[in-house]
Amino acid sequence: MSPGDRTTGFNDHFSGVSRGYARFRPRYPDALFDWLQSLCKRRQRAWDCATGSGQAAVGLARHFDAVEATDASAEQIDAAKPHARVRYSAAPAESTPFADSSFDLVTVGQALHWFHVDRFFDEAARVAVPEGVLAAWCYGACRVSTGVDRVIYQLYHDLTGPYWPPERAFIERGYSDFTLPGTELEPPALSMRLTWRADDMLGYLRTWSACHRYELERGEDPVRIIESDLRDAWADALLTVEWPLTLRVCRFPP
Predict the structure, then answer these.
(1) Which of 37, 85, 89, 231 could be 61's S-S partner, Cβ–Cβ 3.0 to 4.6 Å?
(2) Which domain does 179 fall in, by range?
(3) What's the CA gap between 119 and 253, in Å, rounded?
């Protein structure tokens, strides 16, 4: 199944965990937004599509006069972080009320794999200014330590593996399936890093859509199954958690 052939319906995997998503999802690095804004000839308006908890939208607001942040999930929008230069609204990625040539930058963080990609690319090309920029990024498994990583892999693969939606494979392949609708640009190497205790990691793991589906279908929290092993591996310390980012970025024709 090619990305462009996927259903146009919205499969909401995150409304049930929207509060935890807003609290525990890792924060994108400032260097990401510094680099993206440097690509733009103007910095008047940006559109953050599938904004989720709004963390990318707020990051963009440091550089752009106004940010439109949309998500197909109204519940995610309700939980998003407010900001004076960010306007949130519920809208599908493939069809928005925005005027032609409205945005200097269009961004999609950890969500492109949920879209009907061909239709979204058409919409992004419509609303982007000439020579505007489209940036999509994703991140997969985090890295902590050998012992912690082993426990997280058990949760990811052995316990919840069958509960991940098939779109997860696009992330594991670093969005290499997608052909961007403009001239591709080479991104820098970027990662998200946080210093966490075990409780923070456990909260983050519970935001996984596969954990939510597992619990709905089996009536049991899969994170609780690995909690003791994770705490033992963590040893009540403050540890650095890293998520390498994969970026696909292009510039639209003039």
Answers:
(1) 85
(2) 3-251
(3) 18
CA separation, residue 31 to residues 144, 234, 245 (Å): 21, 28, 12
Query: Looking at the whole model, is its pTM more than 0.85?
Result: yes
CB atoms within 10 A of CB 170: 19
Within 13 A of 12's CA, how many CA atoms are on the CB side? 15
| Whole-number Å distance between alpha carbons of 184 and 37 | 16
What's the CATH code of the domain at 34?
Answer: 3.40.50.150
Determine how many CB atoms are found less than 10 A away from the CB of residue 71: 31
Of 169, 140, 126, nearest to 246 (Cα)? 140
Q: What is the pLDDT of residues 8-67, one digit of tens each?
A: 344 554 454 445 555 777 899 999 999 999 999 999 999 999 999 899 999 999 999 999
Q: Judge contact between 52 and 21, C-beta under 8 A.
A: yes
The Cα 82–Cα 78 span in angstroms is 10
174-219 pLDDT, tens digit each = 999 999 999 999 999 999 999 999 999 999 999 999 999 999 999 9
Which CA distances in Å does 64 have to 34, 40, 98, 105, 171?
11, 10, 17, 9, 28
CB atoms within 10 A of CB 157: 12
Sequence-separated contacts (24+) of 168-171 with Cβ below 8 Å: 168/113, 168/210, 170/3, 170/112, 170/113, 170/138, 171/110, 171/113, 171/138, 171/139, 171/140
The total number of structural domains in the chain stands at 1
